[in-house]
Design a protein that fits this description.
three-stranded antiparallel beta sheet; 3 helices; 3 strands; 34% helix
Length: 127
């Protein structure tokens, strides 16, 4: 045993018993995801001690994966001339840079640089 949590088998059995274990291609109804959210909290420090905080909060992980894919496609289609890198094997963040972030914010994701969101804002953004 590792961290003391339920085994994969026990977790699967509990989800199946609750009717919440989904097969590939299935998933919960949108109404069940109304209060689901994901947050990313990034902190970096340079060798000279300069710190930077960045965090963003979005809906559930599946929704946000789709959001990033769509906004990255729009960034490539409409902001290609503004991108620093025109090709290669890059992550969306490296490739899309500021143009992608602006699109994500405009599409509804919560984004904050320099400080953390207060607890009152740690909830899903509206659809």
């Amino acid at each position: 045993g590792g961290g003391g949590g339920a085994s994969v088998e026990a977790e699967k059995a509990a989800l199946e018993a609750a009717g919440k274990y989904y097969k590939q291609g299935d998933g919960p109804q949108l109404e069940e995801l109304e209060d689901a959210w994901v947050g990313y909290f990034l902190w970096a420090e340079t060798e000279k001690g300069r710190e930077m905080k960045c965090n963003f909060v979005g809906r559930d992980g599946y929704f946000e994966t789709a959001r990033v894919a769509i906004e990255m496609a729009l960034t490539l289609a409409y902001d290609y001339d503004k991108l620093a890198f025109k090709g290669g094997v890059l992550t969306p963040t490296v490739s899309g840079q500021e143009q992608l972030v602006q699109r994500l914010i405009a599409s509804g994701i919560k984004f904050k640089m320099g400080d953390w969101f207060p607890p009152s804002e740690l909830n899903p953004p509206p659809f």
